[in-house]
Predict the structure.
Amino acid sequence: MILLKCTTSNCQHNIKDHCNAGIIGISDKGVCDSRIKRAGGALEQTFAELEASEEFLSDAPNIVQCNAFCIYQKDNRCSASSILVADHMLRTRCMTQIKPKKKV
């Protein structure tokens, strides 16, 4: 994994669009299972981002476990060179997911 960007507005692991979770879990529907809501909500996340130093932000987690029907899913791991996770309607989802085309 070269780059993981997470723009969710209320997650314990997200600081300045960087995910600090050791392992990211993406469900078979493309939903981020690793997301943990902050106790203080989005306001607490804003304060955490103001206090965070760029030096301490990690690039990406070591492993992105993925069960989604996606061209990047290989042996239940994401093989994409970059991934975007973002808020989508009711859930936080992997926006990089591309479903394989059906063979005719």
About this structure: The longest helix spans residues 41-51.
